[in-house]
Specification:
This protein is of the alpha/beta class and 243 residues long. 40% of the residues lie in helices and 19% in strands. The protein is built from ten helices and ten strands. Strand 9, helix 9 and strand 10 form a beta-alpha-beta unit. Helix 5 runs parallel beside helix 7. The two termini are 33 Å apart. The relative contact order is 0.13.
Length: 243
């Protein structure tokens, strides 16, 4: 019987074994990275931009209209800059996609060149709403993150920051946000960067949750959280136990 490592070259097998032995909480220093937020004028985007800037990260808000992005940046302060989406993508090391689901595909398709070579973190949740509340939609590609990966073949796509309360993110009186961030991606180096970014926000922790093929259920869980928050008038997040 052939073992998984037998299919790898000796060097690749050695690297794979070394990666498994690595401390999963040994994360890189990401303090010098410029974080761009596409959709940074919306509630989730504004909240993420505010939290990262408050943690000392250089942040650029992107919008279809540069003036609208700059207005949002001026309102948030903390050295945040505003720019048109294309300029935001070009100037950032890591780009968070926080646009509405309805414009997700068109936005990324238009920015394929500017996002080439970048680490793109998709936090979009494909949801529908009716009289019964929120419910999950399933894109043809399987998830918003997989749609991003299909549209951005020259980018490195990860998925994270789906389950965060925009209210808490934007509240200046909230010092800590005690929650875990489920991080998905194809490269450990990339998911480590995303986990390290999550850890920049006090109280927050990034936890690896699989490859992009598992993104649909992570995105869908937001519909459940919306129901929970509606019933209990809360801002519920997630905690992963025993890790």
């Amino acid at each position: 019987m052939t073992t998984p490592d037998a299919a790898l070259s000796p060097n690749a097998a050695t690297r794979a074994k070394a990666a498994l032995k690595r401390d999963p909480w040994d994360l890189p220093d990401v303090s010098g990275l410029v974080v761009g937020v596409l959709g940074g004028t919306g509630d989730q985007g504004r909240g993420l931009a505010y939290r990262f800037a408050r943690a000392g990260q250089k942040v650029i808000i992107g919008s279809r209209v540069a003036e609208r992005a700059q207005t949002a940046a001026d309102e948030l302060g903390l050295g945040i800059e505003g720019a048109a989406n294309a300029d935001c993508a070009r100037r950032s090391d890591v780009v968070i996609v926080a646009v509405p689901w309805e414009g997700h595909g068109k936005t990324l398709e238009a920015l394929r060149e500017e996002l080439a070579g970048k680490l793109v973190i998709d936090c979009v949740n494909p949801l529908g709403f009716d009289k019964k509340g929120a419910y999950a939609l399933k894109p043809e590609e399987g998830s918003a993150a997989e749609q991003a990966a299909a549209l951005l073949p020259d980018s490195r796509v990860a998925a994270a920051f789906h389950h965060l309360s925009a209210v808490l993110l934007q509240d200046p009186e909230t010092e800590r946000i005690d929650t875990d961030v489920m991080v998905l991606g194809e490269s450990r180096a990339d998911t480590d960067v995303v986990q390290a970014l999550a850890a920049r926000i006090p109280g927050m922790r990034g936890v690896f949750a699989g490859r992009l093929r598992n993104a649909h259920q992570v995105e869908s869980l937001v519909a459940n959280l919306i129901s929970t928050n509606t019933r209990y008038k809360a801002h519920a997040g997630l905690r992963i136990t025993d890790v």
